[in-house]
Amino acid sequence: MPDRWKAPLPKLGDQRKRTVGLLGGSFNPAHEGHLHLSLMARKALRLDEIWWLVSPQNPMKPVEGMASFE
Hints:
By secondary structure, this protein is an alpha+beta fold. The protein has a domain of about 35 residues. It has 1 helix and 2 strands. It has a two-stranded parallel ribbon. Helix 1 links the parallel strand 1 and strand 2. The radius of gyration is 14 Å and the shape is elongated.
């Protein structure tokens, strides 16, 4: 994953309140479009963070050609 996609995790014990958005998908493969959508949603909805919820298999996509989950 490119470094520009990474965000620091909060430190253990950090009690600050955060507004978090959840974006689900197979992200297979993850690409710039996913990042763009995340950044636009974060700005438009005034979110502190966007968390990607990765699904190992999208029922709308064929299994053939999918990258390994490992």
